[in-house]
Amino acid sequence: MIRVHDESEQITFDVEGRATMLESRAVQETASAAIARGVRRVRFDLRDCTTMDSTFSGTLLALARRASASGGDLALVSPSSRARELLGQMGLDDFYAIELAPRAKGETRDLEPSWPKPEELGRLILEAHEELAGVPGPAAEVFRPVVDALRRNIPP
User: Among 30, 96, 128, 136, which one is most buried in terms of CB atoms within 10 A?
Assistant: First the structure.
């Protein structure tokens, strides 16, 4: 489950449990809309995150790039040891700012996963993995063959 704390200057996604491709689209749309309206601080509280797939991590990379291009930033807040381990396994442990901070306070709303059509899901997965393949270092070597396979199997 993902809860959203949406404030004027900052949006925080409080991730509890799994962070997967099924949540990626809703996260991407919500964060992108916040950035477009002027939010400059995008935070993902991962203290209760138990697993993160590569599509979700690629979505975070895309959002970090978008936030930076708008004069903002993206940070991971108090990531659990499991979240840190997963990022390390993907070769991404050095690509995110880490903040140790208390939970965001105030009103929240649940972020409902959106269930895209299969072709939309395929494009979301491809775009996320293109982000991962574009990262300098060993992560790119792992994800480039995945991107090549996805490009062959996902219609444009």
Answer: 128
